[in-house]
Amino acid sequence: MVSEAENSREQKTPKIPVWDLPDVPKGELPQHIQLQRTRVHCTFDAPTHTENVQYSGAYAAMGVDNSLRLGEFRKNFKVEVIKLTEDDMEFDMIGIDAAIANAFRRILIAELPTMAIEKVFVANNTSVVQDEVLAHRLGLVPLQVDPRHFNYISENDEPTEKNTIVFKLHVRCERGSPRIKVKSGDLQWLPNGSGFVRSTEKSNPDSTSKTKTYTSFSSSQDSLPEFVDKPIAPKHDDIVLSKLGPGQEIELEAHAVKGMGKTHAKWSPVATAWYRMLPEIVLLQDIEGEKAEELVKKCPVKVFDIEDFGKGQKRATVARPRSCTLCRECIRGDDWETLVAVRRVKDHFIFTIESTGALPPEVLFTEAVKILEDKCERVISELS
Ligand code: SF4
């Protein structure tokens, strides 16, 4: 039985992690092991040391703690935005594992919802593009609308102003006119819902009820504050959907709903989301004179420069390492591998997001963070 005195002594003594105890050796990894731990080495044959050492006791024999500590992670983790435009964003994520960077990439591609055309009601199509192909092309048109204003629709749900966006497309090429292009800009938003009458209702002559269409909107979408200043439309007006010859016509209604990229790529909010590790190019010796000029010529993306260090003597320098594409031309042949080291930093990712237009790229990333957070919370609650 623990006495009261012992109990209070325990409460007063702060808990110290084993690695912080004074008699545990505070070793440092030898330089070559530290390099293997933190860098991918790109030799001419193949990259080596590509794995991440996860095991907390991997370097215990050398007195080095390899466990992941939240405090350390918080201190080291950084996000630096390098470029931000309306549709593109490039940023550096520093101090993170490849698995987490990849989780963001996968969430961005497959788990962030958008609105995309799912159902197409074709009233007339005499163009050379078949109905199915036209419907597929319509589905891939990016729509400029924030999906957070809409709900998901299930098979048995009625299409309402909260889960469906309706577009009308009616283009005709008159006889005697030159051929015309049908473009995404011809899609007209119908804020009051479908204008097509359901055939079952129409064919019932005794029906006194109101004419039923393919949607049940209780209010107009353009009266909603979020769409007053920004009407719903395709992101780009110039996507060619079909071409019409004289006398040909397309009349249809397209219904867009909320979905995710894992169901179909048309719902993916990004054209692409990708990352690469930060390149690190190191000159292992001074490279001077003709050899320096040869090195500059070897690199197709101009990573190296020549520096004049007096009396016409020239020396190679690494000027633009970030541009390196890992083509490994600079280490091809002779003794170049002993002069130049091509490496990648394992915990520094150059991340690029190209939005299709539904949401700005910086919003897409913050939404991806929220989804990952939700997933982590779900796992914690399941385990506890
Ligand atoms: S690997 Fe290719 S791109 Fe990178 S520095 Fe060498 S030559 Fe240039």
Automatic annotation (TrEMBL):
Residues 88-382 form the DNA-directed RNA polymerase RpoA/D/Rpb3-type domain. PROSITE patterns: RNA_POL_D_30KD (PS00446). Residues 1-13 have a biased composition (Basic and acidic residues). SUPFAM superfamilies: Insert subdomain of RNA polymerase alpha subunit, RBP11-like subunits of RNA polymerase. It holds the Pfam family RNA_pol_L. The keyword Transcription applies. Residues 207-220 have a biased composition (Low complexity). GO terms for molecular function: DNA binding; DNA-directed RNA polymerase activity; protein dimerization activity. Residues 1-21, 195-223 are annotated as: Disordered. GO terms for biological process: DNA-templated transcription. It is found in: Nucleus. Keywords: DNA-directed RNA polymerase, Nucleus, Transcription. Its main location: nucleus. One of its GO terms (cellular component) is RNA polymerase I complex. Belongs to the archaeal Rpo3/eukaryotic RPB3 RNA polymerase subunit family. HAMAP family: RNApol_arch_Rpo3. This is DNA-directed RNA polymerases I and III subunit RPAC1. It comes from Perilla frutescens var. hirtella (Perilla citriodora). The lineage of its organism: Eukaryota, Viridiplantae, Streptophyta, Embryophyta, Tracheophyta.
